[in-house]
Amino acid sequence: MASMITCLTVQDILGFPFGEDSVYRPAKKVISHASCPVPCGIIKAAEAELGLAVKQDVLIHFIQ
User: Which of 12, 46, 47, 62 has the smallest count of CB within 10 Å of its CB?
Assistant: First the structure.
């Protein structure tokens, strides 16, 4: 997937319906598990680097 996503701009990640941006389109070609957190992590990192989001950890935590 890394070879399919070389550079991300604001226009690449904002304003698209869910799953139709420049991260999820290539992800759908190589990731078969719907709950894979990798595409979300890529977008979160891009947003933080582009100044669109706070640089804070994102956590999925299951409590039993």
Answer: 62
